[in-house]
Structure formats: structure tokens, C-alpha cells
Amino acid sequence: MPAPEAKAAREPLHTRTIEIRGYKRSDGLYDIEGHLLDTKPHDFRLAAGVRRAGEPIHSMWLRITVDRQLTIVDAEAGMDAVPYVEHCGAIAPAYRRLVGLTIGPGYLKRVKELFGGVRGCTHVTELAAALATGVFQTMAGQRLQDPDRRPFQLDRCHALESTAPAVARYYPRWYRGSEPIEPAGEGDHH
Fold first, then answer.
1. Predicted structure pTM score
2. Average pLDDT, rounded, for the chain
3. Using the 8-state DSSP alphabet, how is residue 124 labeled?
4. CA torsion angle for 109, 113, 119, 122 (degrees, to 10)?
5. Domain extents in the chain
6. Which residues lie closer than 8 Å to 183 by C-beta, 6 or more apart?
7. Sheet of 15-24, strands arranged across
8. Given a cut of 60, is residue 32 above it in pLDDT?
9. What tens digit of pLDDT does each residue of 80-115 get?
10. Strands 58-66 and 49-51, how do they pair?
């Protein structure tokens, strides 16, 4: 579905692209890589000089390596394009401090504690947050779901609130609502 139609004529001023890719490694670990790219469709004056139309203002990446328990065992940041060439990249090694964190409850809070404000780069920290959902998408189907363990995705979005019809239909054992449960149909799979 396309975005809703704009209410007025518009002039493009900025494009930010965030791409996240997940990989299964030959050693049994998983790499999740994020790339953030900011461009302008016109020449843009920065304090450090002019970027020509289409040239990256920010081109930054972050790779985390996780084990099957979603613990970060390696992390590396890089900056290919930054506004302050001699200065921004100095913070990249700090993102090794992600090592040891587990993707799960408390992860985003810990990322903010470690890299908020002057302790990090706003854009790489944004990638660190986005990679968390990239980890879950990468790991989908990689770990066997224990039928006696509550699925991790429940109560993490409005559609999968434990009292919602989707939970009643697809995860009836974990449903906590008051409406009757409608069994999943033949073609329904999660």
C-alpha cells in the first residue's frame, strides 16, 4: 500500500535510508548489519564545507554479532561519510561496549545509558536500537520454539497483546482475553 496522498505540493529536502541485513555465519553466530544514509537533493552547506546534491552527509554502519541466546558477542561501527570529517569517527570504537548486552528487556535503556548525548553518535545509536528488531527478524525460524515457553513476541505490539483476537487465534494457550477463542483455519500459519 502506498503512503497516503500528500495534502499539498511538496519539494523534496532530505532522504534518510536505514537498511538492516541479517546473516547466519558458518560458526553458528549471527551478524546483523545496519547502514544509515542521509542525502539531500540539493547542494547543502555544512559548517565543514558543502556537500553536493546526492553526496552522503551521513553514511554510517553498525554490525553486531549475536549468539543463539541473543547476547552480543561482537560489535563494530564505521563511518564512511560524516559532517565533521576529522572528528565524528573518533566515537566509532566506543560501540564495542555493546558486547555483553542481550537483545531483550532493558536493551534500549542500556543503549541510551551507554551512548546517550556526548557518549555516542546520535545516528549510530539510532542504528543500535534498530538492530534489535533486526535481530528478532533474523532469528525468526532459527530457534525452535519450545511449546511450553511463552512466545517472545506476545505483548510486544498491539496486535499481539495477550488479550487480542490474534493471540486467541494463533496462540490460544497464551490468550488472556475474555472473548471466545476462534480456532485458526487450515491456511493460517504464523
1. 0.80
2. 90
3. H
4. 20
5. 15-139, 150-190
6. 169, 172
7. 15-24, 30-39, 58-66, 72-81
8. yes
9. 999 998 899 999 999 999 999 999 989 999 999 999
10. unpaired
